[in-house]
Amino acid sequence: MSSRFNELTKEKTLADYEERVKLVKEQLRLAIYFAKEFMDELGKEKALEIIERAWIKYGADNWKGRLQGVPPEDILKVMGEWFKAQEKVRSELKVVEATPERLSIEFTRCPQYDVCQEMGVPEICQKYCDSDYGAATLINPKLKMIRDKELAYGADLCNHCWVMEE
């Protein structure tokens, strides 16, 4: 019975992830077509610089919306609560540490990367990942992002760590 339960749980988890990939694909599809055209027209390097700047603004705006009215000393606490809620429905996400001073998470899979890779532009997801550093400082100048593993660059997981500097 336990073996069958585990098998069904894995199937459900995979189905949930595949549904998330479909949703992300619909969200990113137009942006990826624009990105491909920019790379063709402007050259890959210049286009990717622009794409990274756009990702930075997008990421910062998303978090600023979630953090509106939150005092700076509570930013990591609120971010941690958001990721803990996500962890319950996203098997690929693990909250490693969540304190008011430090938030660390890991992803074992990434729908954005899977979509970009499937559409032939994994470098767009690399810029998505790279943008986390700039987005952190736009959220709060004292917020620092630390990471040494990224799926988009061939690692077995993505690790994200935010620290509020003194």
CATH class categorisation: Alpha Beta
Query: From the alpha-carbon coordinates, what is the Rg to the nearest angstrom?
Result: 17 Å
- Write the H/E string, N to C: HHHEEHHEE
Structural class call reads alpha+beta
CATH topology: Muramoyl-pentapeptide Carboxypeptidase, domain 2
User: How many structural domains can be distinguished in the coordinates?
Assistant: 1
What does this structure look like?
By secondary structure, the protein is an alpha+beta fold. The chain has one domain: 2-Layer Sandwich (Muramoyl-pentapeptide Carboxypeptidase, domain 2), CATH 3.30.1380. It is built from five helices and four strands; from the N terminus they run αααββααββ. A four-stranded antiparallel β-sheet has the order 1-2-4-3, covered by helices on one side. β1 and β2 form a beta hairpin. The chain is globular, with a radius of gyration of 17 Å. The N and C termini lie far apart (52 Å). The mean pLDDT is 92.
